[in-house]
């Protein structure tokens, strides 16, 4: 009399475990996909940042500090 109830309960628990394993697997796959997308986004951002810094390094340098506007008082120590 107790054996059929035990078997039924065991089958129920095994089914629940199988469903949980399947759900965990789905969550892990989704998380992996999100991680890969974030890695691609990070790579693009780093490439963009590198491109901008390279452009700044190639830009012609300015010839010294900016000059004072006409009519403004001379800087301290200027002749």
What does this structure look like?
Helices cover 72% and strands 0% of the residues. The N and C termini lie far apart (111 Å). The protein is rod-shaped, with a radius of gyration of 34 Å. 0% of the residues are buried. By secondary structure, it is mainly alpha-helical.
Cα gyration radius (Å) = 34 Å
**Assembly type:** single chain
What can be said about the biggest beta sheet? none
Low-confidence stretches: none
- Average pLDDT, rounded to a whole number, is 85
> Beta fraction of the residues?
under 5%
Overall number of strands:
0
Q: What is the CA–CA distance across the termini?
A: 111 Å
Descriptive keywords:
single chain; 79 residues; mainly alpha; 0% strand
Entry summary:
This protein is mainly α. It has one helix and no strands. 0% of the residues are buried.
Architecture blueprint of SSEs:
Elements: H1 2-58
